[in-house]
Specification:
With 236 residues, the protein is of the alpha/beta class. The protein has 9 helices and 6 strands, in the order αβαβααβααβααβαβ. The protein has one domain (2-8, 18-234): 3-Layer(aba) Sandwich (Rossmann fold). The protein has a 6-stranded parallel sheet, with helices on both faces. α5 packs across α8 (175-191). The termini are far apart.
């Protein structure tokens, strides 16, 4: 499993890449709720922020999202699925993420390229190196300076998802698929500890929140204060 997450770690140089934060996790990990709370707190203390989600965030990408997550879409070939995710990501980077970074915003991404590495790479069986190469090509090598992984046993996460209602196409995959996703994320974190920080998402919400905020604020101390000072904020 570890070899499946081997790959280069190119990143955009300087503070541009360091102001790009991504958040990953297994289904039902509570990631989206915590990231929205994080944006509120960062806004409160004066950071200009943009929060985006994957797939989605632009008109084209949201249409792709509907196609990918609708159970009615049925079975999608792994390479076709990857191509759709990467197309949505390329549009999001070009239209929203890169302009926001260049204008001094802090960008928070609810999922990014690591999702393709583990979902389409590790879990679907596409060589991870090829997934990473395609991601880098589509995004001109833009990778986050910090990634926070919300780790949770898939059985627990999927039970949370089911309690909210019907599952989408990916959430409906067999449990074995979701275990592959989790293992892929953990292997990725082990190979990139300088970028990927793992949060135990099985703990009470306030404990998870406290550690998330601590990790992000520590990272932002290394970025500097050049993007602070305005409460301008944009949500997906």
């Amino acid at each position: 499993m570890a070899d499946q997450t081997r790959g280069s770690e190119p990143s955009l140089a300087g503070t541009l890449g360091q102001r790009f934060l991504s958040f990953e996790g297994t289904e039902g990990s509570g990631k989206t709720t915590q990231v929205r709370r994080l944006q509120d707190e960062l806004e409160r203390i004066g950071w200009r922020t943009l929060l985006v989600r994957e797939p989605g965030g632009t008109e084209l990408s949201e249409r792709v999202r509907t196609l990918l997550l609708d159970p009615a879409t049925g079975v999608v070939a792994p390479w076709a699925e990857l191509a759709l995710y990467v197309a949505a990501r390329a549009q999001l980077v070009a239209e929203k993420i890169r302009p926001a970074l260049e204008s001094g915003h802090l960008v928070l991404a609810d999922r990014y390229g690591d999702s393709s590495v583990v979902y389409q790479g590790v879990a679907r069986g596409i060589p991870v190196g090829e997934v990473e190469q395609l991601n880098d090509w589509a995004t001109s090598g833009l990778r986050p300076g910090l990634t926070v992984l919300f780790d949770l046993d898939p059985e627990v996460g999927l039970s949370r998802v089911s309690s909210r209602g019907s599952r989408d196409r990916l959430e409906s995959e067999p449990l074995e698929f979701h275990h592959k996703v989790r293992n892929g994320y953990l292997a990725l974190a082990a190979r990139s500890p300088e970028r990927v920080r793992v949060l135990d998402a099985s703990r009470p919400e306030e404990e998870v929140w406290g550690e998330l905020l601590s990790i992000v604020l520590a990272h932002l101390e290394t970025v500097g204060s050049e993007t602070a000072g305005s409460k301008e904020t944009t949500r997906p």
